[in-house]
Amino acid sequence: MDLWIGAINLGILFAFMAIGTFITYKLYSFSDITIDGTFTTGAAVGSILIVNGWNPILVLPVAFLVGSVAGFITGFIHTRFKIEGLLAGILVMTGLYSVNLHIMGKSNIPLLNSPTFITMLSDINPGMNMELWTFIFLLLVILIFWILISLFLKTDFGLTMRSTGNNPVMVAAQGVSVNHFKIFGIAFSNGLVGISGALVAQYQGFADIGMGIGSIIFSLASVIIGEALFRHRSMFIMVLGVVIGSVIFRLAVALALHLGMNPNDLKIITAVFVLLTIIATKVTLLKHKNHLFRWLALACAIILIVFFVIKISSSSVKEKKTVKIGLLLANQSSLMTNTRDGFYDEIKKMGYHPGENCKIIELNAEGDIPNNRTMVDHLLEEDVDILVTVSTASTQAAIQKVKNKPVVFATVANPFVIEAGKTDSIHLPNVTGVYGAAPVKELLQIFTQLFPGPQKIGTIYNPAFPNTKVNLAELEKMLTFFPLLSLEQVAVAGTNDVYQAAQALGAKNIRAFVLINDLTVFNSLESIVKVSQRQKIPIFSNDAERLQDGVLLVYGYEYYVSGMQAAHLVDRILKGEKPADIPFEKYKIISYGVNYDVARNLEISIPDAIRREAGIFVLNGKLTKPPLTLIKMQKQ
Amino acid sequence: MIEVVELNKTFNAGSPDELVALCNVSLSIREHQFVTVIGTNGSGKSTLLNAMAGNLFPDSGIIKIAGEDVTRKPDYKRAGNIARVFQNPYSGTAPGMTIAENLLMAWFRGKKRYPVFSMSGKLKGFFRDQLASLDMQLENRMENIIETLSGGQRQAITLLMAVLQTPQVLLLDEHTAALDPKTATQVIRLTERFISENKITTLMVTHSMKQALEMGDRTIMMHHGKIIEDIEIKEKTKLTVEDLLAKFDDIRKREKLTPQLIATLKNQYI
Questions:
Q1: In chain B, what residues touch A174 (CB-CB under 8 Å)?
Q2: pLDDT one-digit tens code per residue, A247-284
Q3: Residue A515's domain is classified under what CATH number?
Q4: Which terminus of chain B, N or C, has less C-beta within 10 A?
Q5: pTM assigned to the model
Q6: Is residue A575 in some structural domain?
Q7: Where are the beta strands (DSSP E) in chain B?
């Protein structure tokens, strides 16, 4: 049930954004892509203020204000410099990414232990299901907002806004500054989007730099669904249509997840849906009044409701048989999939056989952060016995929502920054897991073994990832133990920047690349390897998995092992141990490897001490990885 | 009321498409005067009107309206004093809004709009009376969307919107050119009535010499960005369409227009 009510709640929270899009897209025929950035801005501003002690309700007007400023800029450059609307939006959206990072100070702000409107609601909960109680409250809020916004659009001012979009020539002749009204409309719309962002962040328990991606398309879909279902001129009915459109859209997402559809496909389905609907409205305008299309939309809605009803009725008669494990991954990177593979392999060794005596429901958020939340709801709906979350984002979504089921996390760099606990043994009662800050100091030690004396090292990182920030801070801290080393660092915003970043470091005459764990760098290592080969700069890395791809030396984790350890924790919990009594574990196994091919090419001789200790090596293109020579991590 | 001094406007200056639309045009229009403007295509008559409305700014020269220099004021800032009706009957009204909503927009011409509800029963009654005076049975269709109306009905409403708050200056830009003859006559009759009832200073660009002579108390002929004739009412009453054509014929002789062009002119203007 929670999956569906949760989807409706999300729909209502996103309705503020959809109403914003309704104003720009329907009233002004302006496709405002700014909102992809503004949504995050609202979330960022709201979250940072809450963390600094603000009241969760009072942050909403601030989120509105900051969102409006972003919208104002889009409107201003669009009208003043006659820059095409879409381009103006893209410009501001792109700029907002940096602004958002600055507002947040990091790429992710957890609100787990901070007051949100949800915690405020829970304080006055008369004992209802929390999701249902939230729904009742949100219903009331959106009802009031619906009436207010509809009335506003019916006033003289609102009428002028609508006329401005309808016929700018006419309103200019009536003494209305089209530009001013356009700017106001776009700013107002973005203000609503800001509120939406702040609310969603509070609801899902964190703000993240990537949470706004795709907002415009989702929002357009909501507006279009609403319009298809309610073709009427009345402002009340039009705005109501948008709200219901937003809810239906979120229900459709939940349904797709429920049916096991790949969320990646969901994006193209949404895009095609928006396209087809726009074409349909254009074509049918010329012919008969959209009868066929409305009928189709209605049919879709009915199918949805039927599924809904079937779901409710079936979930009430659910039988309990085997162990159910929910496995949630944040994206498809090998970090995630290696952890997953380790988990599967180990859990099978321990006698759990998926399909026989246990069921593993695996979901993947495909890099879309708000998806994690819906997927957690889905796993709860499936009534899993235990949740296994791989990655920080998935863990964050799970621990925010799940209070009465065990959560086991894996491949999380630092569970303390997301407030999963205070120390290894003092933590949320239902949460435990495997984590590890990368062994940066050891890597530096090995580097000095190879290259003693004063040396300059270079590193590349993407500040948008919370884990990276932790690792970078660790690197900077550990460098204080090595006074002879100096660090050159280059930040990148995506994989496309990495090649240039590596060249920039090469130009600074660094002795080696020392790479911390970073998803962007991991995914674009080839770019660094190219520079490494050309300029004969060796690569030292904490990522053990890419040794054979041109790295000289690795010292770090196999994420596979993280999954293995998580499997053991799951086993302990299923056998009756309480997660509260199981301390967080650091990764137990370290991989230490040398690539002799690279050493030969770069004319670096590897001392015997390293040859003896490094259990993994690449020689003549062949990777040798004896499973039993993984060495134990040494306590410092 | 309107003072135009040495107005110049060149489009695409310096390019092969250069077009001199206004060339040192000076014009003075008294209060309550109704002036018609005729001219060949590209003669600058629409440019002159648009410059007065503030749709475009002249390269040089001064435009004063009611004593105020408005040369550099954008259109929406002039709209308090100036009302406009366009050639395209779709331009003057918001197609997706109702008749009543369009009239309300015009009711606030040149004024600030606030988030309040001004559409009272009393105002609606006033709008209804005004619509009834159009004699087009529109008074019972106040809640209909403009889109459902014909071009003539829309143009009549645009005209009504222009005079709903009596403007100091009314600018009509070939506002019957896109209508069928019967509707055009209807709109012309309304135009004359509104102007004479409210004694509005008016500048009407027209494509019809007949209209130009029959209406208003002064006619201006334009050609190649210049005013070539300025005929006051006394002289006007004696003129015929043939006289006007003869004047264009003079230009032909001066500028060696081909007989084909003259034929087109005749087609266009009679």
A1: 79, 105-106, 108-110, 161
A2: 988 888 777 777 766 656 666 777 777 777 667 666 55
A3: 3.40.50.2300
A4: C
A5: 0.72
A6: no
A7: 2-11, 19-29, 34-39, 60-65, 68-69, 82-85, 169-173, 201-205, 218-223, 226-232
